[in-house]
Amino acid sequence: MRTLRLTLAYDGMGFDGWQVQPNRRTVQQTVQQALHRITGKEITVIASGRTDAGVHALGQVVGFRTASTLTCDVMMQALNAHLPQDVVVLSVMEAEDGFHPIRDAERKTYRYVIRDGQLPNLFCRGYCWHVSQRLNVQAMQSAAQRLLGTHDFSSFESAGSKRVTSIRTIFESTVRREQSRGVGEEFEGDQVVYEVTADGFLYNMVRAIVGTLYDVGRGAVAPEHMEFVLQACDRKSASMTAPPLGLFLVNVKYPTHGS
Amino acid sequence: MRTLRLTLAYDGMGFDGWQVQPNRRTVQQTVQQALHRITGKEITVIASGRTDAGVHALGQVVGFRTASTLTCDVMMQALNAHLPQDVVVLSVMEAEDGFHPIRDAERKTYRYVIRDGQLPNLFCRGYCWHVSQRLNVQAMQSAAQRLLGTHDFSSFESAGSKRVTSIRTIFESTVRREQSRGVGEEFEGDQVVYEVTADGFLYNMVRAIVGTLYDVGRGAVAPEHMEFVLQACDRKSASMTAPPLGLFLVNVKYPTHGS
Q1: pLDDT, tens digit, for every residue of A136-171?
Q2: I want to staple A87 with a disulfide (CB 3.0 to 4.6 A). Which of A10, A102, A180, B235 is the partner?
Q3: Domains of chain B by range and CATH?
């Protein structure tokens, strides 16, 4: 038996999230079915973390054990031949025995895309949150910077998931305005992108942060409000949870020796 | 009664093309339903040309007559409020009496996007043709240039559509390689874009040209082959019809006095 590590991208629109659930189309089940067709074995794959329905991945990391002797390149080609169009394997590599995608993850980066403008970007409508109000990026960036460091993030944790601790460390937290990418320059325009890197995230944490940044961006609250929310340690102090479609798991970093 | 002119964008993936057909979701029917809800009247809208199932529009032009007294701005807002997410009205303007979107069109521009690389661009998979072979853009551009001018384009016309003449004039015909636009730089890469402007197009003409350019790009035929195809005036001399998903109607130009 050997342990393989996949990097996966998927379009979350057509999935009920990562985790296997009866009678639902999920990413985990889809990958396991492809592996079953390739190896003839029931294989359980473990991701660095679950993503919710509608959330996308540019670089989800997945591990599994297999007796297959296919080379990594052939395994990648076989998986991409068997997977549907909305999941792509970007790399396959050997992992150390005992590699565990959740436990071993050192840092994760998420990106959230907000399209702020009168018209939605027709060809990216499943990949952003469209708001009609023009957002103040400078105020949002000022608020985002206040999240840096080690804090109790329980104000940004949705109920329904008990963790040993709600303390996390955010290494990067930036808001920028960038040219939106669409299929044609006709649809290009501005979009606001939030990118956050941490040693881990609580349930719905990024989407609750984005909801609060949105209230800062539209002028409902001041950037300093972010400190109040953080200190309150109460989900009610933060704003609404932003919708899933704008959220992307960008990458997951592991210690060099483990990869 | 007044005549209004709309510029529309739509995502062709979810439509069985432009034209109303029984029990099919088409763009024409969708726009007419929205107008019915707004005005209470059955209104027939005419487009600059039909687009096939799967073909997209960045700037389709549509005309219709109405007794509505709504201003253009209010009409645009009302339409966008009533249209589904995959159709957007980009502008509404008054047109001269007798404006006819098909007859009055002077030039049309189409764009065709080919993703050439090992992996598809996951988030643009409905908006390009993915081929795994790296294409020779210089050879394709050389072939594309041979189409410029006034010719009988019947080699590029699919059966099933009788026109008075198959002579058309191509004003621009260029192939370029550009940075592909996706939702994240992780998926950026090269794509090959063909853009063509003419005074009109025969049925499936752009897709038959692209099929032939593809054969040039992959080295199956030389750029000079394009002249042979053009002179043959026989559909069998050209290559396969490229799939619809990569095709975009970019814009339609009318004489200044008609707009």
Answers
A1: 999 999 999 999 999 999 999 988 777 789 999 999
A2: A10
A3: 2-103 (3.30.70.580), 107-253 (3.30.70.660)
